[in-house]
Design a protein that fits this description.
It is a single chain. This protein is an all-alpha fold. It folds into 2 domains: 59 residues, Arc Repressor Mutant, subunit A (Orthogonal Bundle); 139 residues, no CATH class. Helix content is 75%, strand content 0%. It contains 11 helices and no strands. The longest helix is centred in the middle third of the chain and has 23 residues. The N terminus is likely disordered.
Length: 216
């Protein structure tokens, strides 16, 4: 969720930008502990006035969504920005960037899974997680489309949603202790390859099937 123009102006100086970074990092830390903390609790822990949080970040849901969005922007590889990138290198780089962050801060990853599967009607953090993941896979599928390697019947947005849902299902099993780190990495890899083998054409489909057979 983007910040307001006012919020951006408030954090123009290096010192204020660093303060903003600290507040968002504290927000992520508190999210890893529980998802129902209050703005007052965050203000106390961050050492800032409650009014400062509201004036610069909006309400608690907006702040939490912003904190989650920023960490994804920081960690996710964007191989599709290289016009010459090999598709399979691209999906590997994206997968590794996700997996490395899960391994680095497992408590945060587990809490994000809990929030993602929360059935509350209003949940900006869940919506942010879902949209970031959809955008990530839509960008990867766009690589195939540009190369003319995507079957004509494929709806990229719909398929990206399906891959995102499958990815979070595997991470949820890991969060519940049903998959170890190595198995999670394999499941994340195989999920994308299975989809690609079904929707790609020619050598891309062949390479996906070959990698599934070799476990690479």
């Amino acid at each position: 969720m983007p910040e307001s123009t006012t919020a951006k102006r408030q954090y123009d100086s290096p010192a204020m930008a660093e303060r903003r970074r600290e507040i968002l990092e504290t927000t992520r830390l508190m999210l890893s502990e529980k998802d129902d903390f209050s703005m007052r609790e965050l203000a106390l822990r961050s050492g800032v006035a409650l009014a400062t949080l509201y004036n610069n970040f909006g309400n608690r849901d907006q702040l939490a969504a912003m904190a989650v969005m920023e960490v994804f922007e920081d960690i996710l590889a964007r191989p599709w920005e290289d016009p010459n990138v090999d598709f399979f290198d691209a999906i590997r780089l994206v997968r590794e960037s996700v997996f490395d962050e899960i391994s680095r801060v497992p408590a945060f990853a587990r809490q994000m899974v809990a929030i993602y599967f929360d059935v509350s009607e209003k949940n900006p953090v869940r919506d942010t997680l879902h949209q970031v993941t959809i955008d990530q896979y839509a960008a990867l599928l766009a690589l195939l489309e540009k190369q003319g390697k995507l079957q004509k019947w494929v709806d990229s947005k719909n398929l990206a949603e399906k891959i995102a849902g499958a990815q979070y299902a595997h991470i949820a099993r890991w969060a519940a202790g049903n998959l170890d780190d190595q198995e999670l990495g394999r499941q994340l890899r195989d999920t994308v390859l299975i989809f690609v083998s079904a929707i790609a054409t020619g050598d891309v489909a062949d390479r996906a099937n070959e990698r599934l057979g070799k476990g690479k």
